[in-house]
Amino acid sequence: LQRILESYSHQVAIAIYRASNMVAVEPLQEIYKYINAREPQKAFDKIVETAAEMLDADYASLWVKNSSDELNRRAIYHPGAKINDKVKSLKPDKNSINMDVCKNKRLLIIPDVSKEEKKGKKGRYNRIYKEAQSEVAIPLIYQGECLGTINAESRHLGAFFETDAIRLGVFAGQAATILKTEENLKELLKKQEEVHKAYERQTMLNYRLERRSGSLEAVMEIGQELATDITRNEDEILRVIHQEASHIMDTQNMYIALYDAKQDHLSFKLAYMDGEPLSIPNRPMKNGRTEWIIRNKKPLITYTKAEAERWYKESGHGEYINQTFASWLGVPIMLEKKVLGVVATYHKTDEFKYDPDHQKILTLMAQQAAISLENARLVRELRRRIQELDELRNLSGDLSITL
Length: 403
Description:
- By secondary structure, the chain is α+β, with helices and mostly antiparallel strands.
- It contains 11 helices and 13 strands.
- Strands 7, 8, 9, 10, 11, 12 and 13 form a 7-stranded antiparallel β-sheet that branches.
- The radius of gyration is 25 Å and the shape is elongated.
């Protein structure tokens, strides 16, 4: 019994020691510097380096899925460790822990990788770091899609715990965001170029392109502003979104509602009407436009008052403020497949106030909000885990004294 307790206390001590660095903000801020400077490769390199250092790992790497479902190595960190540097891609039919994690979209903690190798054809381990004894791997998930993986390995058996997986998940989220941003920007730039070539002589379409380009720059500024302090709480994040959004569109009439799926409940954390703060009571889910967006996970736009009135007359729709607006636009705040809430803007009297371009821009803003809100939730969760580990450490100390 004493040996078991001593072993248990040792494991707890290791977990507490590692958790003490769990919410260190400085490394994440340094990663954000590279993101803001639009230097994704430097950001990836810093991510794997920082992850390895925080997990006390001997090796870390980041893999990105391509169109053929292969995993290509994007970044690696192995200070002095011997590796098989020839392995720079993993085929989808190749047995490997990283491929398993990506296909199944779930993390894996492997306390003894040699056991995986001994499984023969069913084995998942593809040895790159030659002295590896244990591993933790996390999928890079964005809106339900696996974009790749990040993993860390140690020369010690059983080196990784659930807390390590949680911390590695923070870096996985950052890497997934960078990858998706790269993809979105390339797609937007490509579409912008195609439209420009097709309609370069048409003044109205050129004006539209200029407006979209300016809006995209403003959205990037929102991301940079939010990135300057990842410790902001929900209210601070929503205020930044509202303030920065005013540079893109009319935010005199705007609200942001957050959705609690467990309680099936809406809370209107931020609301403005005619430029003045508005207090909207929290409420259970009903059948309004906000609820429709949450349930359908789709944007909703009405161009005219008559169109809005027709929408409310449809079966299953409800109107709760006794006022129908001339223009209305709302988009979901999505994280993976989960709806965190809705951001909406409206105008009382002007019809055709919003168009599909506004919808795209508001959707990008909602994505920025989702990432920041999730970061805030992660920080809260990590701090809660640290508190639990502190309580466990105190309990372990009391047990040792008793024995």
